[in-house]
Amino acid sequence: MSESTSGRGTAVAEQPGTGPMVRVEDLRRSYGEGAAAVHALRGVSFEVPRGELVALKGRSGSGKTTLLNLVGGLDRPDGGRITVDSTDLADLGEEGLLALRRDRIGFIFQSFGLIPILSAAENVGVPMRLRKADPRERDARVELLLALVGLGDHAQQRPGELSGGQQQRVAIARALANRPALLIADEPTGQLDAETGLAVMELLRAVVRSEGVTALVATHDTQLLGLADRVLELSDGRIIDHG
């Protein structure tokens, strides 16, 4: 194995597909300056093993969304190190981060983020269109994913014709379109009632098993935490529990 210094001291580089899916070391992120600065993350360190569903809990303002944005390459930290699927994010420029988000990370948001004028099938197929996937391969993958999330009979319906739970299922299928190694979900059940939210979380757990992906899910719902393989608790920008 090779070594990488990258200005942080000598570290042994991992081979692709080995080690934890996510490794975060002494991560720091602040907004603003001086006395008015908000310290969103204050030296956060943890690992997410491959093939696990890890829940991230904490009150509003604890730093959950900031942390997910950093792990997903949507933002840059002020200090510390993030490794995703054996890739050090500090080594990637904007094009590299774009490729990482497109090819190896799937995002699921509280607001669903579906395109209103497209059908469920078309929404799921968008990430594969961006990669210029073969149309036959794309259509087969869309059909498989909609069946996986229990919406095979709703492929031609638009988001406005679906319930909130069904829209989130479409969003999960879309996040899986390009066979990501990592799923990042920010309060994916936040707009759903308790029963529907539990069903969506159970679906996420089943997807982790069937698709062989890893998931990092932020949630404040204590009922859903029991479905995770492990729970990390954030408070005031610090990890206080690695349960």
Automatic annotation (TrEMBL):
Region entry Disordered, spans: 1-21
Domain ABC transporter: 22-243
Assigned keywords, A-Z: ATP-binding, Nucleotide-binding, Transport
Bilayer-spanning residue ranges: none
Pfam family, one: ABC_tran
Top-rank taxon: Bacteria
Stored PROSITE patterns: ABC_TRANSPORTER_1, ABC_TRANSPORTER_2
GO molecular function, one term: ATP binding
Protein name: ABC transporter ATP-binding protein
Source organism of the structure: Streptomyces noboritoensis
